[in-house]
UniProtKB/TrEMBL annotation:
The keyword Kinase does not apply. It holds the Pfam family Fe_dep_repress. This is Metal-dependent transcriptional regulator. It comes from Natronosalvus rutilus. Keywords: DNA-binding, Iron, Transcription, Transcription regulation. GO terms for cellular component: cytoplasm. InterPro entries: DtxR_MntR_Metal-Reg (IPR050536), Fe-transptr_FeoA-like (IPR007167), Fe_dep_repressor (IPR001367), Fe_dep_repressor_sf (IPR036421), FeoA_core_dom (IPR038157), HTH_DTXR (IPR022687), Iron_dep_repressor (IPR022689), Transcriptional_repressor_C (IPR008988).
Length: 223
């Protein structure tokens, strides 16, 4: 089955949204995620359903079928391997790799992906901390990370993943020193959601607005 880039992008988006909500994805959430108008998403969903790649129940949402899921995982595998390659070997900043990988992901062969995996030493995560599906399209077990926003003052946390969707957020996080692998203690949560963190390797503390904290995933650190 030859799919258009756009069809692959939809399958990828449905997979990502499905794993965030652990269920069917609404047309409006999908449209928002892909920055398209809901009718555009609706007609693409119909097309994907005609190909047996998704199941769509009115008022319930859309889900990948057993045929659609491996295609989504393969695109995600390509995307995340490319991000790793761009960051590790071509000196791209982590705020730049996503856009470039979005373009390249549809055009690399399985063989190219395999060589890339070897060159990179079989990486398990991309530069944002997102898991890279293996060659058999198995998804590495992601830790039980939660959003930073769900934690309380005094919690010590390890940053595991940062959403790759927004370039400005990533640039901001680079500037204040937050990336996967960094440990921090939450020192204050202001009434309107400004979260202040003491990063392990920093003397001064940093503050992130609620909107930014939403895109940071962390895991508790045992003392
Ligand atoms: Zn990405």
């Amino acid at each position: 089955m030859i799919l258009s880039d756009s069809m692959e992008d939809y399958l990828k988006a449905i997979y990502i949204l499905q794993s965030e909500t652990a269920g069917a994805v609404s047309t409006s959430d999908l449209a928002t995620y892909l920055s398209v108008k809901p009718p555009t998403a609706t007609s693409m969903i119909k097309k994907l359903a005609d190909h047996g790649l998704v199941e769509h129940e009115p008022y319930h949402g859309v889900q990948l079928t057993k045929t659609g899921e491996p295609i989504a995982l393969e695109v995600i595998r390509h995307h995340r391997l490319l991000e790793r390659y761009l960051a590790d070997h071509l000196e791209y900043d982590w705020s730049e790799v996503h856009e470039e990988a979005d373009r390249l992901e549809h055009h690399i062969s399985d063989q190219f992906a395999e060589r890339l995996t070897e060159l990179l030493g079989e990486p398990t995560t991309d530069p944002h901390g997102d898991p890279i599906p293996g060659p058999e399209l198995s998804v590495p077990d992601i830790d039980q990370s939660r959003r930073l926003i769900e934690h309380a003052v005094g919690d010590r946390v390890l940053v595991t993943r940062v959403s790759d969707q927004d370039k400005e957020t990533l640039s901001y996080l680079t500037k204040i020193g937050i990336r996967p692998g960094i440990q921090a203690t939450i020192t204050e949560i202001a009434p309107f959601g400004m979260i202040t963190l003491q990063l392990n390797n920093h003397t001064e503390s940093v503050s992130v607005p609620k909107e930014v904290a939403r895109s940071i995933r962390v895991r508790p650190v045992d003392e």
